[in-house]
Amino acid sequence: MKIILAFLLLLSLESFAAERVFRLHLSNEPGGLDPNKQRTSSSSYVLGNLYRNIFSYDDSKGLVPDLGTGCKRDKKQNLLCALKKDLVWSDGSPLTAEDFLRTYKKILNPKNATPRADLLFKIKNAEDIFAGKKGLETLGVSAPDKLTLKFEFQTPDPDFEYNLANFLLAPTKEDLSAYNGPYKLKEWKKGQKIVLEANTRYQGGHPQRPQVEFLFVEEDTVALQLYEKNELQFLRRLPTLFIPSYKTRKDFYWYPVIRLDYLGFGPELATQEDVRKAFTYSLNYVELQKIFSSEGKPGCIGLPDSWFPEKAPCFDYDLKKVPKITSTKTYTLMFSALGGEDHKRATEWLQNQWSKNAGLKTHLEVKENKVFLQILQQNPPALFRKGVSPDRPTCLAALETFAPTSPENYLSIKSPEYEKILSSLAQTKKPAEQKKWCLAGADYLMKNHLMIPLGAIHFSILVKPEFIGWKLNQMNQLDLSDLHLRP
After folding, report:
1. Residue 177: helix, strand or coil by DSSP?
2. Which of 7, 273, 350, 434 is most buried, judging by how many CB atoms fall within 10 Å of its CB?
3. How large is the average pLDDT for residues 49-63?
4. DSSP bridge partners of 59
């Protein structure tokens, strides 16, 4: 009898342990866990919980202290940031300002070809260092003491504090052997899953954070099946076909995110504005919104209305504005496999609209995301679908996507007029002026028919009600530091 009771107790404990696991999925397996070298958003939910920065971002509170206590500007507009006392890595070793400084130099070292080094370019000498024109010792960042960082700027950067809430610039150990976020790596089963466990040395978070597992599931419909079988506790993207039948459930959430999703035109169409107009005005945006149960209207630039004097600018479906195109050429529309079935359905709908309403022939190509990005960098197709998550919740961050120095400038914009707009937006501090220049930037992109915006994006997610404390903000940053089981 004692043996049977012990066995039943063991089963009960195992069942309880299983219930404490919070599982979600990634559409692709990460290439690595160095936040400074991340190229795609696929691993952001993992990296954002392994690594933290001076601040975190909260939709209602804005920037909140994380590894730091705060930052302030001096009379010369230098930025002084203070770190929390007694910070340590997950292995127990001290975490100081020198770790931040060493990481910035790692990011800007031209030998490392770090993909988002541009986030530091407004710091004194940073861009020249990355270009190999100056040495790392000239960088305008210093550590006066173990708890202080000082930033000197080459050009004004009123948004820079937001960069200090980004895990892409989070301090890392040289050998990546320890972490500074609410979680640390427990196990990585190649081809299967990544397992995280609570980092008890992190200052903050819920004391009973559960184990977190990220499964690698490529298909959204497969992930939904796993969620319904209780094998996932968090479904990060509900396929649009299922939204009407799921949106009344208690575990369904709409989350508005700051994204700039668009259809871009490649070099092949750079001098053919009439063709770009035909692609733009032949789409029935209202119909597209209904088909995909979208909260935001396609054709409108997907930035908050509050960033503009009135509302975000939009294109309308207007066949009178469609120029007559006599070309019989077939244009390639390329998109990433990361979008899953939703993107496949959307591009097929686009193909039909262009053929029916403008006589335009298109060929659809889906590529694995890494290959897709390489093609965009080297030889973009005539049309491509791209989504961008700005690094900061500001209009400047969104519009800088198409700045000459941005690695995301797949539209290849090199315009003094557009650069003047960005410069004016960066320098003004008055909200009314910021809105005016935000509209000027959006108008430049749209009135020159350089891209077709796909509207404000809302993520439809499902989360098991037994877990609470998770936070998903409008930057699509998932914070699991306060995650725990409902009492």
Report:
1. coil
2. 350
3. 96
4. none
Does the pLDDT at position 5 exceed 70?
A: no
Residue pair 179/171 in contact (Cβ under 8 Å)? The answer is no
Listed in sequence order, the residues at least 6 apart from 110 whose beta carbon sits closer than 8 Å to its beta carbon are 129, 130, 131, 132
Q: Give the integer Cα–Cα distance in Å for 80 and 71.
A: 5
- pLDDT for 390 equals 87
Cα 468 to Cα 203, 234, 286, 387: the distances in Å are 20, 11, 36, 29
Mean pLDDT of 165-170: 96
Using an 8 Å Cβ cutoff, are 460 and 252 in contact?
A: yes
Q: Residue 155 is which amino acid?
A: T
Asked whether the CA dihedral 415, 123, 127, 475 is positive or negative, the reply is negative
Assess contact for 75 and 55: CB atoms under 8 A. Answer: no
Cite the DSSP H helix spans in 272-429: 273-281, 285-291, 340-358, 369-378, 395-399, 416-427
Closest CA to 243 of 461, 25, 27: 461
Angle at alpha carbon of residue 282, lines to 412 and 417, rounded to 5°: 30
Q: Is 73 helix (H, G, I), strand (E, B) or coil?
A: strand
| Residue 436, CB-side half-sphere exposure with 13 Å CA sphere | 8
Q: What is the dihedral of CA 99, 104, 107, 112, to 10 degrees?
A: -70
- Which residue in this structure is represented by tokens 């350089």? 450
Q: What is the pTM of this model?
A: 0.83
Dist. CA 445–CA 434, nearest whole Å = 17
Rounded to 10°, the helix 416-427/431-447 angle is 160
Query: Which of 133, 139, 143, 136 has the alpha carbon at shortest distance from 154?
Result: 139
CB burial of residue 342 (10 Å; 0-12, 13-18, 19+)? middle
Alpha-carbon distance of 257 to 254, in angstroms, equals 10
Q: Where are the beta strands (DSSP E) in 2-119?
A: 22-26, 55-58, 62-65, 68-73, 79-83
Q: What is the mean pLDDT of the chain?
A: 92
What H or E segment, with its residue span, contains residue 106? helix 97-108
Instruction: Give me the residues paired with residue 68 across strands.
Output: 83
Structure tokens at 435: 């809105």
Q: Is 337 helix (H, G, I), strand (E, B) or coil?
A: helix
Q: Determine phi and psi for 208, rounding to 5 degrees.
A: -115, 45
